Fold this protein.
Amino acid sequence: MDLSLLSLVDPALAANLLDGFGNVLSPENLLLAAAGVTLGTLVGVLPGIGPALTIALLLPLTFNFSDPTGAFILFAGIYAGGMYGGSTTSILLNTPGESSSVATAIEGHQMARRGRARAALATAAIGSFVAGTIGIVLLTFVAEPVATLAVKFRPEDYFMLALIAFASVTTLVARSMIRGLLSLCLGLLIGFVGLDGLTGQSRLTFGVAQLGNGVDIVIVAVGLFAVGEALHMAAKLRKGGGGQEEIIDPDAQDDGGDGAAPRGRFGRKRNPWLTKADARRSWKPWLRGAAIGFPFGALPAGGAEVPTFLSYAAEKRLTKHPEEFGKGAIEGVAGPEAANNASFSGTLVPLLTLGIPTSATAAIMLSAFQVFNLQPGPELFEKQSDLVWTLIASLYVGNVLLLLLNLPLIRVWVKVLEVPRPLLYAGILAFATLGVYSLSGSTTEVVVMYVIGIVGFFMRRYDFPVAPVILGVILGPVMELQGRRALVGSGGDLSIFVSRPLTVVLLIVAILALVVPYLPAIVARLRGRKDGHKLVFHDED
């Protein structure tokens, strides 16, 4: 980053950032940054063991730190590494390590099945670096202005944001609107388990005390993807006579989308990472993903899940290769991964300036601030300026370290596909079980995970999309709570949802997101054209 340019904009900002780089480039802090991104990447690839759990486990070890700055450099590195690491198993095994990597799995795993795992991992790594850098620059310049804008959002606005996300994902990831809506309803049902956010009444717990706090999103994501995928592959292997499934060669050339990649030895093909064509198709999604991810991460009640799905929806609409979506479109990996990592930088805006965490990991970091008797907010920039700017400078350093770490490791990660499928998915089940059990030590939650996994197995078998389930679990309670708050504030007057220009604009966007994908089919039917663009309104066998 050009500090001379910064000095022209704001000399104080340049001086603060320069001091931050001076602190983070000390041997001790540089080692902590490297340890953080390495550990974060490793835990990101393990189903159920994400950055939130890792930071929580490491938090007691940092109590003896004489300076809390080192602890937060370590935690920020784990957070950033975990955001990237979740994409690895999403692409290779269709098993997201983090819920924010669910959108990446949609096209990323199909690329791996077509023998293009290296290209998928490379566009994820480079996109993470590009979008992460853009997000950090924006964090440097616009932290307080964006936080000021976020404060102006009212409950009805958050309700409409959730509605936009539901409409976009349900219509764009499902072959059938009915199946997409049914999957969304299942997610909403799971999301409503637990105590009512306003009244405190127990809902759908069936007398099980452990369900009083709801079903953790980690349990749902791991159940649907890790357990569901393992059961699905076991059924396929059994149906095929129990033999070894053909090993996918991640170095093979694009097979045209038929899903059959030739066997081969790793490292022998001509295109180990991205081809020029891949780069041309990826750079715009990287930028669009960054533009979508950062603002959503900066919004209270934001997070990384919504922008990743919205980025996927945007790329599916803007692509020049619509026939590849669902079969391994590289834009469907580049965009969501960029949004994922840009949202990480955005998440730090409300955390540092308002003390509002917008993700589970941010909530753990907030507790870390409290452990060190620090209160995030405007006073943090005044009283702990060195800590804040060292932390921001460490994000730049950590982003470079992530790229240097993960590009060479692509050769290592793709070898996961050489592991015999029965052993591989047995290992996934073991890691998933241990990861979920480590969340609370509750066997009940492990049982819930396996029940959800069985549901995920049948969803795969009968071609129901799983992404709307995840979104329903995450945003359903938020949408309900904000909608009810809006109604309470208006005395039950439904006109509150059309009373402000911002709310009306968001409502129009939600309606367009639901209707636009089906307009070609409607027009074709009205014109009586049998050869029009076919979009399905009913379930297909």
Summary: Residues 241-271, 531-541 have pLDDT under 50 and may be disordered.
